Amino acid sequence: MAVQSPKGTRDILPWEVYKWQYVEKIIAELCRNFGYGEIRTPVFEHTELFQKGVGDATDIVQKEMYTFLDKGGRSITLRPEGTAGIVRSYVEHGMANLAHPMKLYYIITAYRHENVQKGRYREFNQFGIEVFGAPGPSVDVEVISMADMLFKRLGLKGIELNINSLGCPACRREYVQELKEFLTPLLENLCIDCRNRFERNPLRILDCKNEKCRQHLKDAPALLDNLCDECKSHFDGLRERLDNIGIGYYVDKNMVRGLDYYTRTVFEFISPNVGAQATICGGGRYDGLVGLFSDQDVPGIGFALGMERLLMEMENQGIEVPKPDGVDIFIAPIGKTADIFAEKLVYQLRNAGINAEKDVMGRSLKAQMKYADKIEAAYVVVIGDNEIESNKAVLRNMKTGEEKDVSLDSIVNRLKKTG
Ligand code: ATP
Ligand code: MG
């Protein structure tokens, strides 16, 4: 059997890529409006970057990474997300010495060894942003409003924003003790994953999707009710500022997010179309992350948005992406002399910025016209020996059927005007 693409990967085919380009263009404009510059980092990094940066206890590091030894015996991992690589780059290039806030965005492929389902792939695309240097909550609102504005610009309706606070290491430490006391008598009733999480990462238990676990956790103490004064006022500030610019939200006390590095603000944007893969965008503040890789203490916040899930949601909501126009003109030569002539003409047209095609298959006139139709050419001009001799040809508007006599050497200028 012919070789097929590996499980969990997908081709973005020429006839659907325009949807991606459309969204990418809107993202680039949005990032410019908000003052974010693009950063591109490698697809693979040293494995320890993610062990440290994403966190050893996370599902990503425990179960999902594509890790291998390269020919030099180094442990390499395909990036499962974007933030760790950017933090590495930030530290490596001494960006802490540049003007702050440092506002960056990326559009990347990411790799996770997942159970493949709709909206859950092994290679997928993320748009994300990171801001370094601002402690918030003002910048937290900027970051959240950016994702919100993207949804609005794309015409999406009903995307829900959930927010929560994970506090700082100090209030979290106290809270985790309290949570563990609450959980201890319940432990034997919880799922095997939760029992494993109890020592490694008890906060994650709150986020368990298992219905039985959820029932037992109904009355668990919430971190949000146990924040220290500073974390509480950060969260209150975030809420006030969201209200101020008119972004609606829910407070979800159980939201913990999958990555270990979050502090204080965490948020998710959820699709109203219920499904296991409803989270389109997730983010939060990571004030300790830069400090893990340097002796600098730099606050940070960002989000990552799944491009496949965003496009799925657009499709679910029936949002039509404008299709790119067909070719401006197709030149159909008859015979060898005309073919040589047409070759030069199509070159001149393209050089003038006109989208022009010419037969390169040696097809009959009838077959050429059929092809011109297929590629949705706006105009067709047929060129034979007579046309070259008289410098005159018929320019046919394929939509209206209207035909006009034109001099061959005026075609470039004429199309420039109409185009
Ligand atoms: P989930 O709970 O769905 O596994 P996550 O918490 O692992 O998501 P993040 O690491 O926060 O996801 O990634 C940000 C976004 O990237 C997600 O909200 C989602 O839209 C998208 N995403 C994550 N994993 C995948 C995947 N395997 N395939 C497609 N998109 C994904
Ligand atoms: Mg996941």
Explain what you see.
The protein has 419 residues and is an alpha+beta fold. It has 2 domains: 17-168 and 228-316, BirA Bifunctional Protein, domain 2 (2-Layer Sandwich), CATH 3.30.930; 329-418, Rossmann fold. It is built from 15 helices and 16 strands. The strands form 3 sheets. It has an 8-stranded mixed beta sheet with strand order 1-5-6-11-10-9-7-8. A 5-stranded mixed beta sheet has the order 13-12-14-15-16, with helices on both faces. Strands 2-4-3 form a 3-stranded antiparallel beta sheet. A hairpin with a 5-residue loop joins strand 3 (67-69) and strand 4. Helix 1 (17-34) packs antiparallel against helix 5. The protein is elongated and about 95 Å long. The two termini are 47 Å apart. The structure holds adenosine-5'-triphosphate and magnesium ion. Residues 81, 112, 114, 119-121, 124, 126, 258, 277, 279-282, 304, 306, 308-309 line the site of adenosine-5'-triphosphate (ATP). Residues 81, 112, 114, 119-121, 124, 126, 258, 277, 279-282, 304, 306, 308-309 line the site of adenosine-5'-triphosphate.
Present the secondary structure layout.
Blueprint: H1 17-34, E1 37-38, E2 44-46, H2 47-53, H3 59-64, E3 67-69, E4 75-78, H4 83-92, E5 102-111, E6 123-132, H5 138-153, E7 160-165, H6 169-183, H7 192-200, H8 211-216, H9 229-245, E8 250-251, E9 263-270, E10 279-285, H10 289-293, E11 300-306, H11 307-316, E12 329-333, H12 336-351, E13 356-358, H13 365-374, E14 379-383, H14 385-390, E15 392-397, E16 403-407, H15 411-418
Parallel strand pairs: 1-5, 7-8, 12-13, 12-14
Antiparallel strand pairs: 2-4, 3-4, 5-6, 6-11, 7-9, 9-10, 10-11, 14-15, 15-16
Helix pairs in contact: 1-5, 5-9
The structure holds adenosine-5'-triphosphate and magnesium ion.
The site of adenosine-5'-triphosphate (ATP) has 18 residues, from strand 6, strand 10, strand 11 and helix 11.
